[in-house]
Design brief:
Keywords: Membrane, Transmembrane, Transmembrane helix
Low-confidence stretches: none
Shape: rod-shaped
Structural class: alpha/beta
Organism: Streptomyces avermitilis
Transmembrane segments: 499-523
Largest sheet: 13 strands, parallel
Protein name: Oxidoreductase
Strand content: 15-25%
Strand order of the largest sheet: 1-3-6-10-14-18-22-26-30-36-39-41-43
Oligomer: single chain
Number of strands: 43
Length: 526
Amino acid sequence: MTEGAGIHAGDLPDDLTAAEAGMWQAFRNGTVYDLRAGNATVDDPHGGHPWGPERTVRARIVCWLLLDGPPALAGRVASLKLVGVQIKDSLDLSGGTVVPYLELKGCRFEKEVLLPEAHFTTVRFVDCSVPRLEAARVHTEGDLHLPRCRFHNGVRLTDAHIGTDLLLNQAVVYRDRRGRSLTGDGMTVGQDLQAEMMESHGELSLRSAKIGVSLSLRGALLTNSYTPLALNAPQLTVGRTLYLTPAGLGNPPLTSGATPARGTRVQRFACRGGIRLDDGRFGDAVDLERARFVFEDDQELSLRRVQTPELRFLSEHPERGRVVLSGARIVNLVDRAESWPGPGRLQMGGFGYENLVPHGRFPLTERLEWVAAATAEYNPEPYERLAAVLRNSGEDEDAREVLLAKQRRRRETLPVAGKLWGYVQDWAVAYGYRPGRAALWMAVLWAVTSVAFSHAGHPPVNGDGHPSWNASLFALDLLLPVIDLGQAGQWQLRGGWQWLAATVILLGWILATTVAAGATRLLRRS
């Protein structure tokens, strides 16, 4: 029979093997074509047990069915549903339009699967062994499901358009010749991208990808010892939340896409290699709860210029490498003290956040250490940002402590004379951020000068019409600026007493100004 003749009438081609003939009839009937042997070891698509011709079909026949197959039997919908089938040669559907439903479970491909620029309704490859999936610019109206599949030479989904969900749960993807495991640059997913408990051995690249709802890497293991980055996703857009969090180990089909319940055994997200999320936009949150990062010294978790309403920085702190938040814009920063790296490994220049929501104990002393860790060289901006956030939340006292810490940090950058003057200001009035200390010094100074002036000679300016001498009132009149108690202008001091009076006036201005500034802050807070 000439190939194609009679096919549209439903005739069976002459050159089909027995396995292919069975697949042909199952396609017309819309039923599952199952060639499993019933032995778990033999049926494992990722195992080494060979599958013979009784379980093998040619890729050309599969393409024939999908692109120009026979009509369905009466009352049936044609579809290709294969289980435990080995597909010989390369499956090439490049540029084709596939109307029938396609689902392959536990199948084994001898060579790569080529789907670039192909159009599908829904595609499901479940627990299949695939040398490589080449699907640049593929278009699906519904889902693209690839759970539990193993891809030995990478997956390419560059500029793909997935109408609803992309599922890669428990998939294992090894690197291609360029060192990438999955390349999804420019990809668009209408709803969720789930890659929970996925293993990626190479660079997972999602540059400029757009995910309509959520991107879940719960429990995923990303490792890349070939290039610096394990996750390379600058300019990533996610409609809701990016999850780099634990996944439950109970029943994956039931727990997929959900935060594990308390008490559930979990597998944490782990990454061995750098992460780049620069310029990302996330509609709800970036969640790093209990994530584990293993970096080399030159690698980093980069969140430069990220924008999201909430950053849940609740991961394990990386022992090496850096965390970079420069230019990021966050509304709520949810964090814990032990999640942040130490000095020299945190960068926060231009990092903006509006609210702090610490988990667990995070005292102000440790928060100041957090800021200091991000400023190897003195930079006032992180201190001022923290002080503004604390002040806006009503913690005015803590805000003053932060600004005091800023002055102390600045002091270390000054020359010797500046440092000495700084220590004097700190010791005397805490740079004006502790007005109570200034008031105490005023009281002490008043007491000391009252005693001193009681021994001073004090001829009156005018021979008559002057008040009675009162050393305490005289000292207080000198000490308090602006206020006139009618003493300082009535008496003459000579010699050292004049210098003492001038010193008291100068100190009075300094201390009174400090007290007034502190009182103004308290009134503004109330």
